[in-house]
Design brief:
alpha+beta, Glutaredoxin, Glutathione S-transferase Yfyf (Class Pi), Chain A, domain 2, four-stranded mixed sheet, globular, binds glutathione
Length: 209
């Protein structure tokens, strides 16, 4: 098994954090190249052209951070990061999906439509040029504001996003907030619960992965 990683990028960080939380070490190859781009050899091998990617020993390529996490959770069930029982698994998935759709995608809208390295690369993995769209920056900022408030409310009564236990939902939310930081957007001061959670997650070894 081999993990294709890009140290700079927020989605492979989701997998790096997951591996640290699980205590799993995998052979890893960095596939970031010049110009904040994936290396051409990697794109040739994996035309989806996104990371993280996990290659199995039989050559199967598994992309999408959650698909990889689900596969690894089956091989290494403890500690459970996708939930302990049917109800918890559903709650973890609900919050992980919201963290991705409402946090990661919103932060990516701001970053990819602003940064000069992503001119004509508005969408990751696209085989054709996709221009930056300035209106998406404003929309992304509005969406991030809503994300911060929603997640702050959820953390008012919960230690972690899906309840008392740390889960993959916390990992995706953490990496989404990291990506918002690339555009100098931080958790607003009004979101006290989210700030409390941020300090607690920051103290976990996986946060430095
Ligand atoms: N839906 C994918 C998203 C993967 C993704 O967008 N990865 C980015 C890095 S954060 C990427 O590979 N970008 C390639 C590029 O920008 O050329 C997942 O959940 O794993």
């Amino acid at each position: 098994m081999k993990f294709y990683d890009w140290q700079l990028a927020p989605n492979p960080k989701r997998l790096r954090m997951f591996l640290v939380e699980k205590g799993i070490t995998l052979p890893t190859e960095q596939v970031g190249g010049d110009g904040v781009k994936l290396r051409p050899e990697f794109i040739q091998k994996y035309p989806q052209a996104t990371v993280p990617m996990l290659e199995l020993d039989d050559g199967t390529c598994i992309g999408e951070a959650m698909a990889i996490c689900r596969y690894l959770e089956e091989l290494h069930p403890e500690p459970r990061l996708l939930g302990q029982d049917a109800k918890e698994r559903a709650i973890v998935e609900m919050w992980e999906r919201r963290a991705y759709d409402e946090g990661m995608v919103a932060a990516a809208e701001v970053f990819r439509n602003t940064h000069p390295a992503f001119v004509d690369r508005g969408v990751p993995g696209a085989a054709v040029a996709i221009p930056q769209i300035p209106a998406l920056v404003e929309r992304g900022r509005i969406r991030l504001d809503l994300f911060f408030d929603k997640f702050d409310r959820q953390l008012a009564d919960n230690r972690f996003l899906a309840g008392p236990r740390f889960s993959v939902a916390d990992i995706t939310a953490w990496c989404s907030i990291d990506l918002a930081g690339f555009s100098s957007i931080g958790i607003p001061d009004r979101c006290k619960n989210l700030k409390r959670w941020q300090a607690e997650v920051a103290a976990r070894p996986s946060a430095k992965a």
